[in-house]
Amino acid sequence: MMADIEYMMDAPSELGVPHQVAEAIYLIRLPLPFALDHVNVWLLEDQGSWTVVDTGLGSQDCLTIWDNLLTSFLAQKPVKKIILTHYHPDHVGLSGDLAERTGADVFMSRTEWLMANMLYHDELGVLGTKMLELFRRHGLSADMYEQMQYFKTSYRNRCSKLPTGFNRISHLDELEITGTSWQCREGRGHSPEHISLYNPDNNILIAGDHILPKITPNIPMPVQDLTANPIADYIDSLAAFEDIDNCALVLPSHRLPFTGCNARIDQLKTHHHDRLNTLLQACAESVTAYDVLPVLFNRELDSNQTTFAMLEALSHLVYLEKGGKIKKQENDEIVSWQVLNGNI
Ligand SMILES: [Zn+2]
């Protein structure tokens, strides 16, 4: 029988206070002003320098914590590397400030770098406007549409500034940190070229958002590429992590460090297959993406959560459509989905 998931801590560490999770590795829990109220970033210690993995949101709260860290815990040695797992604002939001302040080199995959820059420099919210129109065609209520207007430029507002350049990292590249070698592992689906870091010597995986305990990573439909199949990307790219055994210590960007990587991968796959089945049943009659939110998420969703929920509902509907299970029906006003005969 597969080993269970076990947490290495009973309770979360204090916000902004370094908490050692392994030799030369420290967790910093940073605050987020959302329902998911924190993000984990990591400090890796070398003989003569520090490496930072992810930076937190571009908020004053997070900046104050970094100010404290740079003048106390990190003060004895320079920060020489900043590694960014992916483009989401809770990971890159302060990367420009930290790079500027420390002179550190920034490491990121090329696609994530381009995504961050595309969204950050969309000052007019062109893509956000397109997203809200897409949601409206997919059944979003008028009330929620109004509440979501702020989301048009939310990426830019949630990042302080971006670094002016980067060092490209790709799948299976190796980085020398903590006196040993860390492999880059690409994950797709949550974001297009997410990089996790695996150290086979210490059996530690810095998982980013690709593999999370308790909560499942959001798998959004990319608004700029409606031909994508992110659920298939996600499930396929989990395979690149199946060689990591259950004894590995997994350091996720949200919630607590744990062991049981393979058990969690199995749970994540089962979760999506169960959701796809539930969704297929819901498509017995013609439904919109907005109609199926209560089927997929059995809790109240605020406007921020509804944005991610709509993108996730669309990615699941597209997966079923591409698999020949359901058909998309469109008229001038609305897009709906219904099962193809014999598929339930
Ligand atoms: Zn993310």
Q: How would a crystallographer describe the biggest sheet?
A: 7 strands, mixed
CATH topology title: Metallo-beta-lactamase, Chain A
Q: How are the strands of the largest sheet arranged?
A: 1-14-13-12-11-10-9
CATH class: Alpha Beta
Pick out the low-confidence regions.
none
What is the CA-CA span between the terminal residues? 32 Å
Q: Helical segment tally?
A: 11
Structural class: alpha+beta
Which molecules are bound in this entry? zinc ion
Write the CATH homologous superfamily. Answer: Ribonuclease Z/Hydroxyacylglutathione hydrolase-like
H and E order: EEEEEHEHHEHHHHEEEEEHEEHHHEE
CATH architecture name: 4-Layer Sandwich
Rg estimate, integer Å: 20 Å
Q: Tally the structural domains.
A: 1
> What is the mean predicted local confidence, pLDDT?
96
- Helix percentage: 25-40%
Report the portion of residues in β strands: 15-25%
Q: Let me know the number of strands.
A: 16
Shape: globular
Task: Describe, in plain words, how this protein is organized in 3D.
This protein has 344 residues and is of the alpha+beta class. It has helices spanning 60-71, 89-92, 95-102, 110-120, 126-137, 142-147, 154-158, 230-238, 261-282, 293-296, 303-322; strands at 6-7, 19-22, 25-31, 38-45, 50-53, 79-83, 105-108, 167-168, 174-177, 180-187, 194-199, 204-208, 249-252, 258-259, 326-330, 335-339. It has 11 helices and 16 strands. The longest helix has 22 residues, at 261-282. Helix 9 (261-282) packs across helix 11 (303-322). The strands form 3 sheets. It has a 7-stranded mixed beta sheet with strand order 1-14-13-12-11-10-9. The protein has a single domain (6-282), classed as Ribonuclease Z/Hydroxyacylglutathione hydrolase-like (Metallo-beta-lactamase, Chain A). The protein is globular and about 65 Å long. Bound molecules: zinc ion. Residues 86, 88, 190-191, 209 line the site of zinc ion.
